[in-house]
Amino acid sequence: MAAAKGAEEAAAKNLSVVVHKPGDLRLENRPIPEPGPNEVLLRMHSVGICGSDVHYWQHGRIGDFIVKNPMVLGHEASGTVVKVGSAVTKLKKGDRVAVEPGVPRETDEFCKIGRYNLSPTIFFCATPPDDGNLCRYYKHDANFCYKLPDNVSFEEGALIEPLSVGIHACRRAGVTLGSKVFICGAGPIGLVTLLISKVMGASQVIISDLSAPRLEKAKEIGADFTIQIKSENPEQVAQAVKNTLGCMPDITIECTGVQDCIQTGIYATRSGGTVVLVGLGPEMVTVPIVNAAVREVDIRGIFRYCNTWPMAIAMLASKKVNVQPLVTHRFPLEKALDAFETTKKGIGIKIMLKCDPNDQNP
């Protein structure tokens, strides 16, 4: 009885994970927000920890995005609608939803062509100065909350965010039936890119990483070949990719941001192929651009994603994609600081925080 009462009291407060400055992460109670006319108030259920959350905690900035005021972290999220704004018609109280964290603030030229992720004024959860949703209660634009079918869990709903990076990367790469794909990096983004490559029709996917356990996970979820990097230089890794596949891949999707890996991606990709850069590293990197140019290797970037949630939900609902093996650790929201320490150490793949004290299920 006392435990149930404690859970009820906890649920009535808006416990939030807040970064104040580099190295300063706190659990704080904040006011429960009131949704605007086009917004819904959500009781958060599952929120994944992303590398960017850890980076803001450790360094207080990513590129030009600098934490100047306390900011709630979290952008891989799902929850339940508890209140709807006066103009909301598509959602109702009790609906389970996945949250797309990027919401355009204006209908600018990028929105008009369907590439709203490039809008310079976009709101984005847990990107300074915008608060994220690693908290008990959070309000969000109703048009960017997507109803989850009954057979898609809250955790799967939260994993749509990283899955969307994989979808957007594979779309930009042109992955299609029969593609041979090389993925650099077997962290969460490399692994979702592997899942999406396979479901989009790639006939062979080869993935590289330093970590043997991550490559084991890649094998488990469908990688055809894995390469563990030791001390090889980029050209040697590219040759190993060619030898293992029996040919050069049509597409390389680079998910680390590490200079050597970007170089490897260019050397490895067949002439006329495509390299997509997903991982973000230092602002300036040295790459064999002439090698790419004379072989007509296209180099494309991606920034987050757009128009991916409906596809991801359809793929999860039809069981075409299984993201559940990616969740290796779960922590209640109250233990968020322990969860962040675990993520920082590189333990596991995806760490999930459970924000509803009355429902800690997946």
Tell me what you see in this structure.
With 362 residues, this protein is an alpha/beta fold. It has 12 helices and 20 strands. Strands 3, 7, 8, 11, 12, 19 and 20 form a 7-stranded mixed sheet that branches. α5 packs across α6 (188-199).
Measured as a percent range, the helix fraction is: 25-40%
**Number of helical segments with 4 or more residues:** 12
Beta-strand residue percentage: 25-35%
- Sum up the overall morphology in one term: globular
Radius of gyration: 21 Å
Number of strands: 20
Oligomer: single chain
Helix-and-strand structural type: alpha/beta
Provide the low-confidence segments as ranges.
none
Largest sheet: 7 strands, mixed
Query: How far apart, in Å, are the first and last alpha carbons?
Result: 24 Å
Mean pLDDT: 96
